[in-house]
Amino acid sequence: MLMLTYRVVRQYLNLLNKLLINLLINFPFYIKYYLRFLVMPVKYHLEGNIAVFTIENGKLNLFTMEMHEQFYRSYLKFLHDDNAKVAVLTGSGGNFSAGDDLKESDTAIKSRENPRWDELLINQRRTKPMISAINGWCLGQGIVYSLLLTDIRIAGESARLGFPEIAYGMGGISGATRLGIQIPSVHAAYLALTGEKIGAEQAKEYFIVNEVTKDIECFSRAMEIAKKIASHPLIAIETELDGLHRGTELSRSSALEHASQQYINQRKLHLAAGNTAIGDLKNQVSNEKGTS
Question: Which Gene3D superfamilies does this entry report, sorted A to Z (predicted)?
């Protein structure tokens, strides 16, 4: 009996010893893993039906691989939350984002880190609209996210946008963003090949942004538009966004067929929820009177 007790205690001590050794060896990793969730450089919160993403990492809001992962996971949360109808993406401290942290980006390329969270993020099927509120620097990965994840873009007067990658031997961003489809090809070629940074008004002329506001009004204007979108039924928002995206990829006849089927599907779901066209119209008139 005594021998059995001794063996159990010995096994327990050996196990405890292994755990302590593992803890000491991996202590820096555990601290880093804990801090990454304690400190979130990509903030996410809901304001009513509006999800707000804020890039917050120093003066320039440079992206790290951990930030791409945080953004990706928060973005999935936004897509799957029925309370969130639209999102606003912005940066803190007077800048949107000056792009990736190049040192960390080079390390990730050399190691072929898997998964690449930024690639997973931009390849997600977007079912809800996002608006970007851009102040200060919007370069590299910052403008990539703005072009590929947002549908409406508001720029403050201080905004400076561009693709400086070509100067660092990192060309090819125009293909990844399908820049020549989003804006006129001559503007796309100028931005991609020169690496020049352009101001807010020129970005508006290039059709990269919708509006230019005073810096202090940029975020509030984006939220104002988001509130207007959020006043509509989620199923209608998702259907309209799907039509915008798919319509550019399909032939005219296929686009019309797809739109017709989507309209039927959304009306079935909307009516099944107890809504009617007359009721929708009354609610819209009532809302417009209330805001006038």
Answer: 2-enoyl-CoA Hydratase, Chain A, domain 1
